[in-house]
From TrEMBL:
Database matches in InterPro entries: Amidohydro-rel, Metal-dep_hydrolase_composite, Metal_Hydrolase, Metallo-dep_hydrolases
Domain Amidohydrolase-related: 75-396
BP GO terms, sorted: guanine catabolic process
Organism lineage string: Eukaryota, Metazoa, Chordata, Craniata, Vertebrata
Name recorded for this polypeptide: Guanine deaminase
Keyword entries, A-Z: Hydrolase, Metal-binding, Zinc
GO annotation, cellular component aspect: cytosol
Species name: Oncorhynchus kisutch (Coho salmon)
Gene Ontology molecular function: guanine deaminase activity; zinc ion binding
Keyword Amino-acid biosynthesis in annotation: no
Cofactor(s) named in the record: Zn(2+)
Amino acid sequence: MSSNESAAGIAHVYRGTFVHATYHTAVEILEDGLLGVDTEGKIAFIGSGKEVDRLSQKWGFEAFAVTQLGQHEFFMPGMVDTHIHASQYSYAGTALDMPLLQWLNMYTFPVEACYKDLEFARNVYTHVVKRTLRNGTTTACYFATIHTDASLLLGQIANDFGQRALVGKVINSYPLVRPVVTPRFAPSCSATLLGHLGEIAQNNDLHIQSHISETKEEVSLVKELFPDYDSYTDVYHRHNLLTDKTVMAHGCHLTDGELKLFRETGASIAHCPNSNISLCSGMLDVRRVLNHKVKLGLGTDVAGGYSPSMLDAVRRTLDTSKALTIQDTQYHTLTFEEVFRLATLGGSQALSLDENTGNFEVGKDFDALRVNTDAAGGPIDLINHGEGPKVYVAGKRVVPFVERP
Ligand code: GUN
Ligand code: FE
């Protein structure tokens, strides 16, 4: 990697294709872009490759120090997993034969009890951080367990491997890691506990995460346990747990009134389609959530979801949207461009981290994936490149490819 750390604070300059979402456009592609990163890792400038001479004078880097991306490479923002249980990674891909409440009692609670053992925790947490990073998750909002030492360890491991993370429960911060107040879900909390957690979050301006309206059975249980509240959402709201730093997983069965409360408070939803199908919980109508102008990101929800990959979450989001379209042919299906935005900028917004991450804007951190579609031994075969049938979309030549599993 070329660098020029002495001049004008520019540490790296990259030239090539940049793909990202903006607040106005689901996917924006900058061909032959030129992006400079300062010594603090922040984007100093974004321009065109054709301006390299002017920009090198202005910013004081040598044109030969520019890192040129290959023809089949591009940069995209790191993906944001807005909901993943680090403590459930050890059994991901198994135990998906029960509905949520039985699944929790039969599999999840016994495994999570093991995290009193720090060596067990270190082993699983190291694997989950490395695996999610390998899959392109540069930011993760983690559920851990009630064991403070193990949760601190997860924060340290994420920080050491360079992953941005929110970790709950945890009581102090690392440079890349912040604490998140984490009531598991209303059925496992008393009103008194919820009240105290709301207070802690408010007094310390902390993030909050929990689960909401994942299954119909759970919604009924909350009605029984909290009979004096208007709705499941009202249970959290009346304890100051719905803020613009709150992310609630699932929300499959929320009413319009509840979504309105999300909008008013700025709370967001983590959509976890793999989990919702795997545990037969429900199918979230993402279009409806977006129409309510509620912030929404994607989550893997390992191990209710069997895959730690955000690319899987993207695919399952499209699958669920298409399943809703099968049920109602008038349904406004999500496009892959919209889902790309949800996996990147949408996730950053959902976690209220979009001041610093989520897309390529001057002043934000350069938090990016360098993707090579032509990597040796990779999963993609580029077909007929440069010759053979030409395919045009909206007047632009595209190179067709097929992906091999
Ligand atoms: N609701 C409460 N706890 C959990 C959990 O661990 N996983 C999922 N999917 N839902 C929950
Ligand atoms: Fe979950």
